[in-house]
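Practice problem: predict the structure.
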Amino acid sequence: MLIDGPVEVVLDDGSTATSERMVVAVCTCGRSRNYPWCDTSHRSRVTNARGSREAAPSTSRGSEKSRDR
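Answer:
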């Protein structure tokens, strides 16, 4: 979620996270390693045809290279 900054977010434990940026991306999915700020971790999952979330396919080609040898 994008919010016009600066922003103060009060976390569950009562601590406060502050950002002085003009626009702040706040995590709403809970996957961010930089919570409460979004680090685009939500992009590592895709939605299938039924609407449920699953891991995105790997872009690694290591197994294809070993087959070609």
